[in-house]
C-alpha cells in the first residue's frame, strides 16, 4: 500500500465556507427551483459593445495570437498610466511602475508570492476578502487580523484602526512587513477619505512596512463620494502598491484583466516572478482592455448608475419588511446585519435556511473571517423585479420562522 505524501501548504487552507451554500444552490437548481442569487459578486451586465468590437477586430489579426509579454503589452501599461493621470492626477512610469495582471486576484497572489518570505508577518483588515488573507498563508507567511469598525455612513473609524494598527506593530514578532488595505472594502463596503492614506503612509515610513492597497471597486461610488487613491499622497510610491481590476467597472469579470501599480521595487519583483510563471494575457484581450481604459467612459457611468439604483431598491424593499440595512456609498455590495431574531443561528446557518426556505442566496459573513459573523454580504447582481421578489420571499420566511 502506498504511504500517502502530505501536502502541508494546502493543509493550511481551511474548508471553503461558501462551498456549502454553493452545493445547496446547485442541487436546488438541478431540481428545477428558482434561486434569487445575491451570493457572488459576478456582474450580470454585458461588456460594453465598443470593447467587444475591439476584441473581435484584434482577434482577426494572426499576429495577435502568439505569446504575449508577461507584464502586459506597452499600450495597455500606458493606458493604465493614462487612467491614473485622468482620474487621480497621478503620474506613473508604464515600464517600471505598472504591471498588467490576469485580474487583480491573480496579480495580488503573484505579488505576495514574489515579496514574502516564510515567517513574515502581514496585517490584514478583518473581515476580509479571503485571498487577501490566504495569499500570505499559502506562501508560508503569517497574518495578523486587524478588526475594522465603521459608522452609519460606512466610513472607517480611523482612530480605532490606527490605535489597533500601532498595537499590532508593537506586539508582533517579527515586525510586520506588510499592511493590506481595501477601500471600498469587500465585504463591508467601508470607505475612507484621503486623510486615511496620509496617516498610513506616514506610519509606514516610520515603522518600515509596505502597503498593499486594493481599490477594485473604486469606480462604483454612489452620490457625491469619490474613492481616493493612495498615490494622491506625496511619497506614497516609496512604500505602496495599488491593485485594480476591469471586472466590475467594465463588466469584464471573465476577461481577467487587472493591474498592479506603484513602488518600483515591488513592481519589479512582480514582473520578474510573472516572467517565470506566465506569458501574460491573450493579446486581443489586452488590446480591448486598452480601449476600455482609454476610450469613452459613458459606459462606466451607466454601470455605476445601475448598481446605485439596485442598491436603492434593495434598501427600500428590505427596510419595508423590517430588515434595517445601512446604505453603502460604494462597491457592488450591501453588508447587512442579520435580524436580531436570527442572530443565534450564525451567518452560515442563517444563509442555509434562507436559501432552502426562501430561495434567496447570500454570502455568510463568517466566510470572510470570524469578524464577519453576524452579517451577510448581498451582491447587487439581480434586477429590480428579482430584488422585490426576494423581499417578498424573505418576508414570508420571517413571518413563518419568527423566534
Question: Can you characterise this structure?
Answer:
It is a single chain. This protein is of the alpha/beta class and 403 residues long. It folds into 2 domains: 8-46 and 299-400, Aspartate Aminotransferase, domain 1, CATH 3.90.1150; 66-294, Aspartate Aminotransferase, domain 2. The protein has 13 helices and 12 strands. It is globular and about 60 Å long. 47% of the residues are buried. The mean pLDDT is 95.
How large a portion of the residues is in β-strands, by DSSP E?
Answer: 5-15%
Taken together, the total number of domains comes to 2
Order of strands across the main sheet: 2-8-7-6-5-3-4
Distance between termini?
Answer: 54 Å
Largest sheet: 7 strands, mixed
Helix content: 40-55%
CATH superfamily of the largest domain: Type I PLP-dependent aspartate aminotransferase-like (Major domain)
Report the strand count.
Answer: 12
Low-confidence stretches: none
Note the quaternary state here. single chain
CATH structural architecture of the largest domain:
3-Layer(aba) Sandwich
CATH third-level topology of the largest domain = Aspartate Aminotransferase, domain 2
Overall geometric form: globular
Radius of gyration: 21 Å
Q: Which series of helices and strands comes N to C? A: HHEHHEHEHEHEHEEEHHHEHEEEH
CATH top level of the largest domain is Alpha Beta
Class by SSE composition: alpha/beta
Which whole number gives the mean pLDDT?
95
Number of DSSP helical runs: 13
Amino acid at each position: 500500500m502506498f504511504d500517502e505524501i502530505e501536502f502541508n501548504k494546502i493543509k493550511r487552507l481551511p474548508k471553503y465556507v461558501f462551498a456549502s451554500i454553493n452545493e445547496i444552490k446547485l442541487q436546488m437548481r438541478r431540481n428545477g427551483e428558482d434561486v434569487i442569487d445575491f451570493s457572488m459578486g459576478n456582474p450580470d451586465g454585458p461588456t460594453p459593445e465598443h470593447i467587444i468590437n475591439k476584441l473581435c477586430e484584434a482577434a482577426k489579426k494572426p499576429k495577435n495570437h502568439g505569446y504575449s509579454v508577461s507584464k502586459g503589452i506597452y499600450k495597455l501599461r500606458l493606458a493604465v498610466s493614462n487612467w491614473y493621470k485622468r482620474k487621480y492626477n497621478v503620474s506613473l512610469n508604464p515600464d517600471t511602475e505598472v504591471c498588467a495582471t490576469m485580474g487583480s486576484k491573480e496579480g495580488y497572489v503573484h505579488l505576495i508570492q514574489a515579496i514574502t518570505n516564510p515567517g513574515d508577518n502581514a496585517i490584514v483588515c478583518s473581515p476580509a476578502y479571503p485571498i487577501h488573507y490566504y495569499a500570505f498563508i499559502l506562501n508560508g507567511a503569517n497574518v495578523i487580523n486587524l478588526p475594522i469598525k465603521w459608522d452609519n455612513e460606512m466610513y472607517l473609524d480611523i482612530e480605532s484602526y490606527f490605535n489597533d494598527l500601532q498595537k499590532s506593530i508593537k506586539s508582533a514578532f517579527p515586525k510586520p512587513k506588510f499592511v493590506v488595505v481595501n477601500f471600498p472594502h469587500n465585504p463591508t463596503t467601508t470607505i475612507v477619505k484621503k486623510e486615511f492614506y496620509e496617516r498610513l503612509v506616514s506610519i509606514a515610513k516610520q515603522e518600515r512596512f509596505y502597503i498593499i492597497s486594493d481599490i477594485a471597486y473604486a469606480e462604483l461610488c454612489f452620490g457625491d463620494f469619490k474613492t481616493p487613491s493612495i498615490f494622491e499622497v506625496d511619497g506614497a510610491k516609496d512604500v505602496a502598491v495599488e491593485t485594480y481590476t476591469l471586472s466590475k467597472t467594465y463588466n469584464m469579470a471573465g476577461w481577467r484583466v487587472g493591474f498592479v501599480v506603484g513602488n518600483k521595487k515591488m513592481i519589479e519583483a512582480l514582473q520578474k516572478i510573472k516572467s517565470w510563471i506566465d506569458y501574460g494575457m491573450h493579446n486581443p484581450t489586452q488590446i480591448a482592455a486598452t480601449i476600455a481604459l482609454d476610450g469613452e467612459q459613458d459606459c462606466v457611468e451607466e454601470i455605476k448608475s445601475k448598481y446605485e439604483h439596485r442598491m436603492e431598491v434593495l434598501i427600500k424593499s428590505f427596510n419595508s419588511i423590517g430588515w434595517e440595512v445601512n446604505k453603502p456609498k460604494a462597491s457592488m455590495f450591501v453588508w447587512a446585519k442579520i435580524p436580531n431574531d436570527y442572530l443565534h443561528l450564525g451567518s452560515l446557518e442563517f444563509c442555509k435556511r434562507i436559501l432552502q426556505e426562501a430561495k434567496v442566496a447570500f454570502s455568510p459573513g463568517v466566510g470572510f473571517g470570524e469578524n464577519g459573523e453576524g452579517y451577510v454580504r448581498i451582491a447587487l447582481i439581480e434586477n429590480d423585479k428579482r430584488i422585490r421578489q426576494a423581499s417578498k420571499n424573505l418576508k414570508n420566511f420571517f413571518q413563518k420562522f419568527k423566534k
